[in-house]
Amino acid sequence: MRLRRPQIIVKNKEQLEGIRESGKRNIEILDTVAEKIQEGMTTEDIDHIVYETTQKLGGIPAPLNYEGFPKSVCTSVNSQVCHGIPSKDVILKSGDIINVDVSTIYKDYFSDSSRMFCIGKVSDEARKLVEVTKEAVYEGLKQVYPGNRFGTMGNAVHQYAKQYGYTVVRQIGGHGVGLEFHEEPYVSFVSKAGTGAIFEPGMVFTIEPMVNQGTDEIYIDGNNDWTVYTMDEKLSAQWEIMVAVTENGYEVMAY
User: Which of 25, 57, 141, 172 is such that its CA lies 20 to 30 A from the CA of 153?
Assistant: First the structure.
């Protein structure tokens, strides 16, 4: 039997406009979080902010009840790599770093992006990890243009993080997005240059490396089957942008 390559959806003009409008709301939700997040707040408080802002903007939080996920947003603190579940028991304190991962459905179109926030007085080491991770995303973005390959983009992200002594999580990566929450392709950030699918105008996907201070080894919390942690309990950081390939390069649709 001949195996088919996973189908990557190339969006048309109407679909791109719908995804763009969803992305605008995703940005506004994260902007609202940025205005309000502070020391002493619980991650449950962040969930309330996201839910209420999404509702006000006419959207639906994509994570809520997605495959059983119980909240409207992922809040991953310090050694949590991703998929942290908001809780009234997790109180932000000075020195914490946190990833807030927002995904929005607006008129049946999906958007997805995340940001890191530094709470209070953060160590130089933690702040550097946060900054380098964001820089790595934009190093990858430079490689997004028609004719180039996903593997080359992912490799650029990895090499940038690696030069600072950091590691990049191998088991989890980015994804196509727009008509569904998660579409093809899976986007690796430990890939080889010159490999992977070729960028075509109309492709929409996320660049979202998870960069670790120590080992790239991770584990999933057995109590909730969602939250991913670094194996050595050192810090992890992640920034996520949603990108469309254009005729001449790229458009960042959510950040």
Answer: 25
